Amino acid sequence: MAKITRCEDARKYDFIVVGSGNGACAFLRQYLACSSGGKILVLEEGDNFFETSEITHQRNWTQSYAEGNIFKLHTAQTSDEIPILSGRACTMGGGGSINYTMIFESSDWLTKNLGHDQAYWDARKEELARSFERKDPTTNLTAVARHVKKKLEELDFSVNKENNMEIGKHVNDHILLPFGIYLLPQTLQVTLKDQYVSLFATTEEFADDNSQGEPTICNFDFFSGELGVLLYLISHLFLAFWVPNWLKFWMIRKPGVFNCLKRVSRTLVRILNALDDILWSIVNPFKMGKHQWNLISAIVKFNIAREGYYEPQPVCLVNENKKTKLYQIVLRCFEDKSRKNDPDFRVAETAIAKQIPLMESLGEKPHPIFQFLIRLLTRMPYKVEQIPNYINHYSRYDLLTEQHLSGGCVFGKALDLGLRSPKDTGKVLGSQNIYVADLSASPLPRVSPQMTAYLIGHHVATQITK
Ligand SMILES: Cc1cc2nc3c(=O)[nH]c(=O)nc-3n(C[C@H](O)[C@H](O)[C@H](O)COP(=O)(O)OP(=O)(O)OC[C@H]3O[C@@H](n4cnc5c(N)ncnc54)[C@H](O)[C@@H]3O)c2cc1C
């Protein structure tokens, strides 16, 4: 593909694709395979993922969060104007395309939200899965992953298989709550692959006492590794925990403030690490330089109960004498004044309370002094009675999403489902020739969304080339 930095005449192109993330990649692949050609221009504001890229390798996956120029913040807040750390990747290839949470939504869900019947979606998934040539991830597990698998099975979780349709049927997403930092057994060999353990688990939780209505699907992900590596991974997300809300207000609006705070966060991480090394060397002078804490940590993520929306920001950006209207995203999480009745609060509380024993079986609690320090910063619970205070604090000061924003321009509402005329699939209703083929076209999937994003790109290309 030829790369250009200036486009003299956009009219020379038959198709202009804006962005080259997950949705666009799958769209282009299928479009090029099924059409007789035409000239295509792809506009991408971010770096070329495939050339920049240590980040395409497992060990540097963490950089997709920590690297300055490939992660941008959304202007996201709650309806009470509490800032939320929520972002997206701006790289060719999309955000999370290197780790393990690659799960299709169920065909049933896709039929309800995007039209067509279940057999149609089964066939598209099969086509797309073939193009990935993915092996079964459960056959080649690291020692840490086997340890997590064993503990999960002891607690009656069933283990995920590739493209597990069952998981897709019961999942949801997106507020991100870390809920444990424990020490792994020293006998376990930890590899770089374990930064994001290749297993995830799901449970169903209800927001009311009667277990009525649709359950919320809670996804549990596990991270493990040496303290320094894990701290580096979250150095970016650390901002959710130590930056006060008034400063976050500016951080989510001004990229300069965000970049500056990111650097401060990385420096803090380095200082914390050095401090830990010095203290350890003082206590163990004969083992200097051999120090390694291997940690295991978990997050629970689940879909916010109420749908959010975009709204115009009060300030406009004046650029080259042109006024640009900016938008902010309102995510309606933890919205009820009475936290106890709030559906997000209830789901988080039950999900965490049930899995504290799992965390205790995966590793040991850190020394009480470290528990105190962890809790000072995050209120993260080590006992069930600490959970309400943690979620309360989190919902006011530490809000963080899984960076899985979707929707805003969804099929059947803003976009043509293409049921009458396939070539109109994904066309913005009321427009002549604007199409959407990425995650903005779908409500939030109940699972990690990138496979659904690929599927939407693949689906739109399949239909419009018919
Ligand atoms: C750090 C990180 C980790 C993630 N991990 C996972 C995971 O493990 N599993 C999972 O399922 N999901 C994960 N996700 C979410 C997943 O990456 C997204 O849901 C998915 O990429 C959405 O696909 P998309 O095509 O809709 O948008 P994107 O992949 O975000 O693509 C949008 C593209 O458009 C470009 N763009 C935007 N505006 C413009 C413009 N005006 N002009 C030109 N180009 C523009 C962007 O630079 C980007 O390349 C992760 C996200 C992030 C940020």
Could you please describe the fold and organization of this structure?
With 466 residues, the protein is of the alpha+beta class. It has a domain at 155-400. It has 14 helices and eleven strands. It has a four-stranded antiparallel β-sheet with strand order 6-9-8-7. The protein is globular, with a radius of gyration of 23 Å. The chain starts with 14 loop residues before the first strand and ends with a helix. Bound molecules: flavin-adenine dinucleotide. Flavin-adenine dinucleotide is lined by residues 18-24, 43-46, 64-65, 87-92, 94-96, 99, 101-102, 403-404, 438-439, 448-450, 453.
Annotation keywords:
466 residues, alpha+beta, 3-stranded mixed sheet, 14 helices, 11 strands, globular, binds flavin-adenine dinucleotide
- What's the total count of β strands? 11
| Average of per-residue pLDDT values | 82
Distance between the termini: 24 Å
Strand content: 15-25%
Low-confidence stretches: 53-59, 162-172
C-alpha Rg (nearest Å): 23 Å
Q: Residue share in helices?
A: 25-40%
Kindly report the spatial arrangement of strands forming the biggest sheet: 6-9-8-7
Give the distinct bound molecules: flavin-adenine dinucleotide
SSE string, helices as H and strands as E: EHEHEEEHHHHEEEHHHHEEEHHHH
Number of helices: 14
Q: Output the structural class.
A: alpha+beta
* Shape assignment: globular
Q: Could you give a short account of the major beta sheet? A: 4 strands, antiparallel
In short:
The protein has a domain at 155-400.
Question: What topology does this entry show?
Answer:
Layout: E1 15-18, H1 22-34, E2 40-43, H2 63-66, E3 71-73, E4 76-77, E5 87-89, H3 107-114, H4 118-132, H5 143-154, H6 165-169, E6 175-183, E7 200-205, E8 216-226, H7 227-234, H8 239-242, H9 245-251, H10 255-283, E9 294-302, E10 309-319, E11 322-330, H11 343-362, H12 368-378, H13 387-397, H14 450-464
Parallel strand pairs: 1-2, 4-11
Antiparallel strand pairs: 3-5, 6-9, 7-8, 8-9, 10-11
Helix pairs in contact: 1-14, 3-4, 7-10, 11-13
